[in-house]
Amino acid sequence: xxxxxxxxxxxxxxxxxxxxxxxxxxxxxxxxxxxxxxxxxxxxxxxxxxxxxxxxxxxxxxxxxxxxxxxxxxxxxxxxxxxxxxxxxxxxxxxxxxxxxxxxx
Length: 105
Fold this sequence. Notes:
Layout: E1 27-32, E2 35-41, H1 49-62, E3 89-94, E4 100-103
């Protein structure tokens, strides 16, 4: 959990309950210019994204800097990374969540 490959992220407006989403089994598809460039699922993130969140919470307590209400957690990639260049259109779909699409100008 070093955030070495992320420079931006998108937060949705809809709040979901953990019980309503299968984080371990959710499928992810990433398209670059309408071609699939990455696929994966929640289990690619330490078996379950909640495992990454738990590790981070415990680590931050040990470092005397516990997580706080409102903190954003990026628990890890669900599939291989995709290089993005100016002009690319990226679409990301994860089961249980809204699909996002963005054009890099």
